[in-house]
């Protein structure tokens, strides 16, 4: 659906150049929610702006549905952009226009008859739950409501792609959840492809199908969220994930503390229905080792349950090894922690 | 003849004041209109070219910017004299209401253009970006986003400009422009008729007050923040 090919973006000219993206390739499937996570300055903002050519890449190609956007003329690009919705961190609504007129804005740009606009805007107001606020101005709305207007506006011209530029970063946690729920709902209802950039792992975790981690203008890791989340390869990815489970210092203290040769700290991850099975207790009963839970998370990735436990096994070394083998055989991901 | 400090309103010809007031309002109206028609596009051009990355447009910006600055730095009274041939060419006379309008506009339009540029800079860049992302053309961005969002600032700038025009019409009175300025200068300044001068000044103050109040009302009406 969307393919970025050798995309490079360099700001400035001559000596004062700042590379933002370097030879970046990315491929996004139709109907998926694709997340790009990165620290500020990693290039994620440039990346999402390259998709609709708000930023023209210095070199490389942007393919959407087999059309290379970088080859389009002005008019054709404007027409294509009408089918790519975009929402923003600071909403970017017209402050001088009512909620209704903001949502109608893209339709008026496309010279849609006013009668059709009314039907469409009413539909969208209902979708985002703002029927009662149609005649208000953005300044009279809360952040969450403003983002709902932003979403309605982005959807008004029936796009096939929605770009979300840090769409929840300016919102509080509850509002973030409700906006993410709305995005997920839209994605499922209209089979809309969503590309979002964020610096928050929980956004990726709640709604994304696949994720790419961007660092210094390049993708350092990508894949299905569960895979990246449970088996992070790159240090940056690990950093994002441990930041999310905020008690890592506590754990470090335990791991660094006194431990005997007959104990071993292990990280065990499981995904899907296994989350609810009593694999751990059955296994230790068979092998006769004891265990203490040092840290644990049971949560969901999008709607898939997953768990991650850090436990310390106590027992004979070969019994512990046997335990690890059995757990692996049952489909759990087992990783020995270094202390 | 009365002296400075001694007022005598009995000699005042009120018909003359009526005519002068109408002349002043005509000058303000006509020059205000042309200032808007020239200054607004000029200000938009300044704003659009100042943000451009293309070297050609950057050049255009520098050229307009320098011209605007020159016109703004020349004292108005000198500008009137310097523009006499051009004024004659444009309107066929250099005196009276008609002969005053070209110098008034040429002095006020660059001033207004700068105020337009400043007002447009106040528009949230994110909103402009959002409009481009929605497939807006440059014309649509100007018409439907920039001018609309900057409306309060533009109206405030227009008010300031028109008020400045009032004082410039008075200065144009020095060279026989007509209107309240001529009256104040001919009677009050040259003939020491304090009564006439005072009435002329009071009338101009009233005009400025009325314009400022109207401007403020409009600004409030269009403010949505």
Automatic annotation (TrEMBL), chain A:
InterPro entries listed in its UniProt record: AAA+_ATPase (IPR003593), ABC_transporter-like_ATP-bd (IPR003439), ABC_transporter-like_CS (IPR017871), ACT-like_dom_sf (IPR045865), MetN_ABC (IPR041701), MetN_ABC_transporter-like (IPR050086), NIL_domain (IPR018449), P-loop_NTPase (IPR027417)
SMART domains: AAA, NIL
Keyword Nucleotide-binding carried by entry: yes
Top-level taxonomic group: Bacteria
Residues covered by the ABC transporter domain: 2-241
Keywords: Amino-acid transport, ATP-binding, Cell membrane, Membrane, Nucleotide-binding, Translocase, Transport
Gene Ontology terms, MF aspect: ATP binding
SUPFAM superfamilies associated with the record: ACT-like, P-loop containing nucleoside triphosphate hydrolases
Record-linked PANTHER family: AMINO ACID IMPORT ATP-BINDING PROTEIN, METHIONINE IMPORT ATP-BINDING PROTEIN METN
Protein name, per record: D-methionine transport system ATP-binding protein
Annotated organism of origin: Paenibacillus hunanensis
Automatic annotation (TrEMBL), chain B:
PANTHER family noted in UniProt: ABC TRANSPORTER PERMEASE (PTHR30450), D-METHIONINE TRANSPORT SYSTEM PERMEASE PROTEIN METI-RELATED (PTHR30450:SF1)
PROSITE patterns linked: ABC_TM1
Family to which the UniProt record says this protein belongs: Belongs to the binding-protein-dependent transport system permease family.
Protein name: D-methionine transport system permease protein
Topological category with respect to the lipid bilayer: Multi-pass membrane protein
Subcellular location: Cell membrane
Keyword annotations of the record: Cell membrane, Membrane, Transmembrane, Transmembrane helix, Transport
Bilayer-crossing regions: 27-48, 60-84, 90-113, 154-175, 195-215
Domain ABC transmembrane type-1 intervals: 21-215
Keyword Ribosomal protein: no
């Amino acid at each position: 659906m969307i393919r970025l090919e050798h995309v490079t973006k360099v700001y400035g000219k001559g000596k004062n150049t700042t590379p933002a993206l370097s030879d970046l390739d990315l491929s996004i499937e139709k109907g998926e929610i694709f997340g790009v996570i990165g620290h500020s300055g990693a290039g994620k903002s440039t990346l999402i702006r390259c998709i609709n050519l708000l930023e023209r890449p210095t070199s490389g190609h942007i393919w959407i549905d087999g059309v290379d956007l970088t080859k389009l003329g002005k008019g054709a690009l404007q027409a294509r952009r009408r089918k790519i919705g975009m929402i923003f961190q600071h909403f970017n609504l017209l402050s001088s226009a009512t909620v209704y007129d903001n949502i109608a804005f893209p339709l008026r740009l496309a010279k849609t008859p006013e009668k059709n606009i009314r039907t469409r805007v009413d539909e969208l107001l209902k979708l985002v739950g703002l029927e009662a606020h149609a005649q208000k101005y953005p300044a009279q709305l809360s952040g969450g409501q403003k983002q709902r207007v932003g979403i309605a506006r982005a959807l008004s011209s029936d796009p096939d792609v929605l770009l979300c530029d840090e769409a929840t970063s300016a919102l509080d946690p509850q509002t973030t959840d409700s906006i993410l729920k709305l995005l997920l709902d839209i994605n499922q209802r209209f089979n809309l492809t969503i590309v979002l950039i964020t610096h928050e792992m929980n956004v990726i975790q709640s709604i994304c199908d696949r994720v790419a981690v961007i660092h210094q203008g390049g993708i350092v890791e990508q894949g299905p969220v569960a895979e990246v989340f449970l088996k992070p390869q790159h240090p940056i990815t690990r950093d994002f994930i441990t930041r999310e489970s905020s008690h890592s210092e506590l754990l470090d203290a335990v791991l660094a503390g006194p431990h005997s040769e007959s104990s071993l700290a292990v990280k065990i991850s499981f995904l899907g229905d296994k989350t609810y099975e009593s694999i751990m207790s059955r296994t230790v009963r068979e092998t006769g080792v004891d265990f203490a839970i040092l840290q644990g998370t049971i949560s969901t990735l999008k709607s898939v349950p997953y768990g991650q436990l850090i436990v310390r096994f106590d027992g004979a070394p070969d019994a512990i090894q046997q335990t690890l083998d059995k757990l692996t055989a049952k489909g759990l991901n087992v990783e020995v922690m270094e202390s | 003849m009365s002296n400075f400090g001694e007022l005598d309103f009995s000699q005042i010809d009120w018909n003359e004041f009526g005519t002068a007031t109408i002349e002043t309002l005509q000058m303000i109206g006509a020059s205000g209109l042309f200032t808007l028609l020239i200054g607004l596009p000029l200000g938009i051009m300044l704003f659009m070219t100042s943000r451009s990355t293309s070297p050609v447009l950057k050049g255009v910006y520098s050229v307009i910017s320098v011209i605007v600055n020159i016109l703004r730095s020349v004292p108005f009274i000198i500008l009137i004299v310097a523009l006499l041939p051009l004024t004659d060419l444009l309107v066929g006379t250099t005196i009276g209401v008609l002969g005053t309008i070209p110098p008034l506009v040429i002095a006020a339009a660059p001033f207004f253009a700068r105020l337009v540029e400043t007002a447009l800079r106040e528009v949230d860049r994110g909103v402009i970006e959002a409009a481009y992302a929605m497939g807006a053309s440059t014309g649509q961005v100007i018409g439907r986003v920039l001018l609309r969002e900057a409306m309060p600032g533009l109206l405030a700038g227009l008010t300031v400009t028109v008020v400045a025009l009032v004082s410039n019409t008075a200065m144009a009175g020095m060279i026989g422009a007509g209107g309240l300025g001529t009256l104040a200068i001919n009677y009050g300044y040259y003939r020491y008729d304090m009564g006439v001068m005072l009435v002329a000044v009071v009338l101009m103050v009233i005009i400025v007050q009325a314009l400022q109040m109207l401007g403020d009302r409009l600004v409030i009406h269009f403010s949505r923040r």
